[in-house]
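Hi R.,

Here's the input for the glutamine complex you asked about:
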Amino acid sequence: MEEKNLKISIAHLYPKLLNLYGDMGNIITLVKRCEWRGIQVEYEEINSGESISSHDLYFIGGGQDKQQQDVAGELYKNKEFLQQERDNGSVFLGICGGYQLFGHYYQPFDGDKLLGISLMDAYTVAGKKRFIGNVTVETDFLSPSTLVGFENHSGLTYLQGETKPLGKVVVGNGNNGQDKTAGARFKNVFGTYLHGSLLPKNPHFADYLISLALEKRYGKKIELSKLDDELEIMTHNSLVGKAY
Ligand code: GLN
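And here is the predicted structure with glutamine in place:
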């Protein structure tokens, strides 16, 4: 199928509440990398009180504990629907606070436990220390194999069951600063602590997510045309292994 005849629908979940450290850059990257190829994008913002319809790809950013509390209730109302979307192959990308709500719960330092939507078998508890700094992750499914970004979280995320990490922490703290895991994946649900934003300097991961969303929509693998990523890869490589 020619790319100009392709389309994907992207839902941006609660951007007015969860959109920290440039997370909007992830949406801009996904939309631009489709448009540069002639792939149409239907982009929809879902804000508090609005219903969620079916999409090929869902994105949710990060935020402070207070904004997470506001979003948790909204998300929880759509738990069954979003789990069905996961099982139908929709792609999800959650960053930091949004990632934490993809699990069973997030227990902030102060206040009540926030119930997550259990898209993945994971849970998060706030730690005493805030992890802030650059992160490099070594994956076994991307080429190049690395992911780079910036973390700022006190939450410690632990993975269970069939939920696997995105990769191994090479620089930084990752999920919890203990087990050297970074991020998480279950089916087409991806979560990570990498802000910055993540996708502009990890174009290979952006294309991986776009390919999965197209495969979900059209029921077959679709080879994406190559883009001139010289600048993006130069930026990526300049950050690999960098702590400061
Ligand atoms: N409030 C959460 C934490 O501190 C998430 C922070 C974020 O999204 N950057 O762990």
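One thing worth noting: The mean pLDDT is 97.

Cheers,
M.
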